[in-house]
Amino acid sequence: MPALIFMGAFTGAICYVLMEYLKLDFARFTGTHTVHSLLGIVLGLFLVFRTNSAYDRWWEGRKMWGGLVNSSRNFALKLNAYLPREDNETRDWFASMIPNFVFAMKEHLRMGVQLDELERSDDQLIPNLKRVKHKPNQISSLMYDRVNTLYKNNVIDGFQFSNLDKEQKDFLDLLGACERIKNTPIPYSYTMYIKKFIFIYILTLPFGFVILFQYFAIPAVVLIAYILLSVELIAEEIEDPFGTDPNDLPTDEISGKIRENVKEILHSYYPRAYAEKKEL
Predict the structure, then answer these.
(1) ∠128-129-133 over CA atoms, to 5°?
(2) CA distance 74 to 77
(3) Which of 26, 47, 216, 221 is most buried by its number of CB atoms within 10 A?
């Protein structure tokens, strides 16, 4: 809004100076708007590429989180089938740790894990996480150790161990893909060039439009400025899809849904305990 107000006032001042103060004969400058028409085509191509690049990052991030939903459910379903029905301790542990990985991954992509969002599967979890920098890796390592212990204790066989290993590998693959999006922004020089191009283009529009529209150039310039600036701001907002802006991915809601699904799956054999934990 400040930029649009400025452009409206600036265009009005240009129109007044050229029409009332200098009293230019606009009939001699009828072809000057051609330059803006040609530059507008070039600017449109840049904005299309800019918007597509930002949306591709947003959509790829959404696919990664969709894959995380599927992998967490598959992992929980396989554990539910492989674990003995009476082994409530192991079920509770995984029902806490699988969502813990998701919540740690969510905040890790925002440059800081909130430990108060994690469920305490045991007394050593939080102290162990405080000692490491990459907390999702540590949680994944703990799950690998627990699955390996189940295999050594003959709770699961080699085929089941291999199936569980695939799902745990998917967790880290999805985390790595999201980190790639997070840590590889669109080149700064490219985004700055587009911003400068838009700034210069909008700033020179009044000089070309006053010849065609006179005082009607004011709403025309404001409208074009609104369109160009909005496209650039939308691209800038969605190029980092893991933040907390309104148009970022709803990772908080997805994480909560994963926690609910995993607990429901692993507590399906003793729903009363699941209902009590859900109330707490």
Answers:
(1) 125
(2) 5
(3) 221
